[in-house]
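Quick log. Single chain, no ligands specified.
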Amino acid sequence: MKRTLSASLVLASVLSLGLAAQAAPRTVTDPKAPRALAAEGPVSVSWSDPSTFSEVKQSRNRFEAERGNWVQQLAEYVRSRAAKSLAPGQTLQVTLLDIKRAGDYEPWRGPGASDVRILRDIYPPRISLQYELKGSNGQVLDSGQADLRNTGYLQTSPRLQSSSDPLRYEKGLIDDWVRRLTAQQPGRARPYGR
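-> predicted structure:
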């Protein structure tokens, strides 16, 4: 009886440790985290190692900068926005090369504010990406690298995002880029965002 009880306690302890490890906050630099979205629709999005992104490398609070799955959220946003704007048969491949989110941490404000992202003009959002847009016949219509930045992000309000969305400024960059990319393409099927 004692042996069964102690074995049960050991098993319960191991299971609780395993669940606690799974419940740990996810970080964008986790080696097990995906580096691409699952194939779905005409837009594929992948990204390089987020530990090399400016958001993580240049942050004054690396722990907070790594926390969450904001890279994947931005990749999903690229896919959803671009898919709505492509003409039938077009495909788009995007690789996110670097991301620096709007704002930064200012630890000199004191321990109570060390995990608060401060938005100022000197911390604009930036996204660097490579892309290749192909027509329905497989011909490359446009390709290259785009360096997205909005130095006046505090004066311009993001059009479609909620003011409480922590990625609203980065999503605004993506909206503008998709609009510019698809506006110049012949045979665009539908207006942006519909």
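Residues 7-23, 189-194 have pLDDT under 50 and may be disordered.
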